[in-house]
Amino acid sequence: MQKFRLATGGDIDRGHPVRFEFNGAPLEGYRGDTLASALLAHGRHLVGRSFKHHRPRGIFSAGAEEPSALVQIARGARTEPNARATVVEVHDGLVARSQNCWPSVRFDLGAINNVVSRLIPAGFYYKTFMWPPTPAAWLRYEHWIRRAAGMGRSATSADPDRYDQRFAHCDVLVVGGGVAGLAAARAAAGGGARVIVCDETPRWGGLARRGASSVPIDGAPRGDWIDTCVDDLAGAADVTMLSRSTAFGYYDGNLVGAVERVTHHLAAPLPPFAPRERLWLIRAKAVVLASGAHERGIAYPDNDRPGTMLLSAARTYVERFGVRPGTRAVVFANHDGAYDDALALRDAGIEIAAVVDPRDDAAMAGVDVRRARDAGLPVHARSLVLRAHGGHRVHAVDVAAREGGKSQRIDCDLVCVAGGWSPAVHLFSQARGTLRYDEAIAAFVPDASPLPIVAAGAANGCFDDALLAADGTAAGEAALALARAASPSPAAVARPPRAPGAAPVEPLWTVPAPYGAKRFVDLQNDVTVDDVALAKREGYQSVEHLKRYTTLGMGTDQGKTSNVPGLALMAAELGTTIPAVGTTTFRPPYTPVTMGAFPGAHTGPHVEPVRRSAMHAWHASQGARFVNAGLWKRPHSYPRTGESEDDAARREAINVRRNVGVVDVSTLGKIELQGRDAAAFLNRVYINRFDSLAVGRCRYGVMLRDDGMVMDDGTTSRLADTHFLVTTTTVNAVRVMQHFEYLLQVAWPTLEVYATSVTEQWSAAAISGPRARDVVAALVDLDVSNAAFPFLAVGACRVRTADGEVRGRLFRMSYSGELAYELHVPTVHGLAAWEAIIAAGAPFGLMPYGTEAMSTLRIEKGHVVVGAEADGRTTADDLGLGKLVNAGKWCVGKPLLGRPALVADDRWQLVGLTAQHGAVMPRGGKLVADPDRAPPIPMQGHITSWCESPHVGAWIGLALLAGGRARHGETLWAVSPLADQRVRVTVGPPAFIDPEGTRLRG
Amino acid sequence: MADIDGIGSTRPGHYGAQGTGVVLARATIGAAWNVQGDPRHAPFVAAAERQVGLAPVAQPNACARREGLLLLWLGPRSWLAIEGERTALTDADVARDALNAAGGALFDVSSSRVAFTLRGAKAADVLASGCPLDVDVRAFAPGTCAQSVFGHLNALIYRHDPATFTLMVATSFAADAWHALSVAAAVDGYDVVPATPFRP
Hints:
heterodimer; A: alpha+beta; 21% helix; elongated; B: alpha+beta; eight-stranded mixed β-sheet; five-stranded antiparallel β-sheet; 4 helices
């Protein structure tokens, strides 16, 4: 039974009742209601408990600026805290409950905080929880602080909904679909512009969408004007209208972020595949900010009791939702516009017990005030509300004259405050716009921005309903001109149009109060007038300090109704002007945005792109365990049933040394170079020479950074006189390509060299082991005898596969130290070639091997790896590659390579280590002479790579050791302080197998 | 790699919401060549036209077409020639030598990219869900190309007509790209049809 629902009126659909649940109680409303309007229809005002003091709180506003009526909606994976009841649209099945209270909103144990509230003023936690001064004590305090802090509860399972994203472009973006915004959109569209207009509510027309008592627009009744404008826009080809869409942020390059709530208002079952929300990223040539304004309250003692709300909100509940938020109201207002609102309430059947106005009769001569007086509203001029009475609901207020004297108690069940309006300038400020304090309307209005944004309507400080449409039209035309300008110049915002004879607003921020009375400024964070004074006394006087010290404006409402009163109070405390105090920085988002809207579909397994080789499915089918190498997935090993990964890697490595193995090396970077100067270019980027490389041969090369440190290594082949193939490590492929592009475009643009990445073009397999030749011979049409195809030979070939004969390239090079070949085929044939290798290798005991076995093999061989040995701090000489540095030519990094520190004797040099007595090499081990010395123990080196070596029969490692090359045979300790491990190791050369390279060259 | 509701499957059929906002298909590439050189150097332009079949165009994002062959602008000195069936350039080495001699370069990149076609009333919207370019037909004309991103993947995009695009990504990202397109297309419903050779 909706006791407070008006019999007629409102923009709700009375033909469609909806059933929802609040705090476990089933209730009924209508489609078109918000949760707040539906609760008010049932006379429910107690909605939650405040953050700090756990005071009973009700519904303060009718929009996104709501600080008090925060509820937890939905259950399970979809539950959402801090939803504003004034914005949530009711639908069948909506479940909502009060938050921040236990066991119930009516009886909340947290209310003890209100009893001890004198002990917990603003900033109390900076002066408490300090004794005893131990970490253990703090952690115990923190446990309870965590439980007390925060409001609602977040979901603890994955978000089950989809979120969509859309990029959009337009000439003019209009933020706000009220009268001014609609007028601006129509004016811009009329000029032929591509227009997007968005509004955060489900309906167009803004606050002006009200009953018949409102001022007409262009001679038409308000509602008709709005409907016609909407029809015009909806029918225009180049206009996109987005309702339920909040423009939350203004970013570089006139990019505006907006989130569209697609299914929030729908009952289950939702349309399948509909996204819950859609993130719009709108690139506009010009923006019209018609975001309206927020009404302010007035801070008097106990101004937070349920039943206290903004006057315009009360009117919105009456006229838009057909709900009476009370039966007997006291209005506390300081400007003429409030009187029209008061009359509207009276017309809806709410008794107006008093209109309390602090101004002199002389200032109250406007037509609206006279109308109200003539209608019999009891007006108390020069008066203040001194306090409210009530607990779970206001039931009376005390009113007295400004000068003082006896107060009178007036019974009421609704208090409507009207302290003036603050334009919603957030996006303007984010667009680097400056604000100006307009004394006549006691508000900060947009001043100027270097970006093409103009303000319109209430956002522009135009609070006169009669002038909104004209202001909007002018803004739309100005935006259109900005969008069309060849080089847009900053727009100066037009002064807000003012109705002739409008009296200036006399702001009233607070009233005198006895000690201990709570006059709330920020309702959400329980910040009072006394807290502002406290901040000033403690020295936190700048507006940014005021905010952080008191937490004023830091709640989910971001101070929309409290920032200006707060800074005005600080100005009064400091004895300075409001503009001198200024506003805090406005940052996106304007209102909270669901986290899921930002990544969209890039969550879970799709959070990062994944690169797969042509053989990926084959690896997976063989039980490969994958690891990440950059964005690539590479097989770590191929464990068989009953095998651990380590067992598999060991088996695979042994098999390579004994028979033959094949590993997928498609991920290595490959860059082809062509051009007359290609060889000269390679001479400049590598430490060694490549102009001397014959066609049909390849050579290992090392590249340096400009500072002389090793950057990357790889094998480069000469395919023709002016055609080379460069390989790089997997993770540096992109970096090396960028390095080449930079050098060719910027450093040496006169060189005739062309480069392109062919990492994707070629699938590659390395076939390694004593029987590798047998396998390769069975596959390709080349003579691969040692004489015809010696170590480091390169040749084009044809490969026999199930796809037929495919062309490929064969390289004889070895990473493992065994006889080895690399076979490249175009990726489209990659899988077929791999399967052909597997089949050809079967008679020879071929097994696939992964990165773990590959790593074991190369450590045994003493090959350095970028990232481990070449960690950005090592030179070629450190790594034992000093002889490769060609003395006769310049290369990138050569000049700084000669720095004294880089040629010093005691540099850390590459050595091999063998763990003694069968010990396991510690992870991240450091090399010291005596681990039992009192710290600090001089560190002589560190281990860069390590493995259990089947060939050596012990744990081995590669390490960098001070003066290492002269220390072969020494015994040292490898220690890991973190794991408390220590192992004796013997220092030796980095190659543990075949140091002369006989296996490679046979 | 498909999600529980089949989104991301490559099997022909209907997926997503009711109705068909877009038709998705793999467009196979028979051959692709990266041609590089200075378009102001007449011998290079002549050699490219002779070897590849089309003269490189200097206008950014412009394309040249001839029967099944399309030449896309990639940069001031770089173009991509692609065709669905391999017909041009029977001997790559000879062509490369001719280009090198004329001061340019020719690289075989036939396997470097995969291509997907989006066709239908919602093709532009699906593209706009991942690509920050202005996809309005007045800003992105038919017969032109652009390099941008789709989601978190680099993409080369060619517009055939107001309602048809081909999106090309690096081969190793094929599965990711197809999944991203499918998820975007599911909102308005999509059909998957069998792969056919790329046709400009």
